[in-house]
Sequence to fold (188 residues):
Amino acid sequence: MRRIAGVALVALWAAAAVAEPTDRSRDAIVARKVIEARGRDHGELRLVRRGGAAVVQTLLVTRSLKRAVARIRDKEAANWPQDGHGYGASRVYVEAVEEAAAQVLEAPRTDRHRRLLIEIELSGNAGRIALSKPTTRAGADGITLVTSEPITRLDVPCSWARREIALIAGDAGLDVDKLAPLPGCAGP
Fold:
């Protein structure tokens, strides 16, 4: 019965998917860290203030997008056990990332790297996942996000987004308190 309820939640959130542009004009990066594996840079993890919202951005710029997605899938499985609270939202997140990565992989290449922007946003009492195809360039302070083409945007429970932001920041060794105060969650 629990599995059926989880599948129903996945279908509900998936039905709410809307690919709309994200206004990043008020973004302030408060912390960033290079994503590195096997001696190569694969993008950046960023903690961002967007007005009153707290955002964790995973900006992947990598030749190994399938490996990066597999790593996200493994971390989510470890962080959100199948019988625990938040599993349904985590599953929606992983499926959305897999679908977005498939779209990126199908698109024509402009260079050797594939790019995917993953954002988890906590604003007021709302949690959101936004996935985009970014255009980037190397900047003095790291990767500069030039533009992005929305792929999907999903609403998720506030409590899941809050914990997910803390888990991702902590795993990267970034101080989530730089986003303080994190918006609270009155409901789910």
Remarks:
- The radius of gyration is 16 Å.
- The longest strand covers residues 142-156.
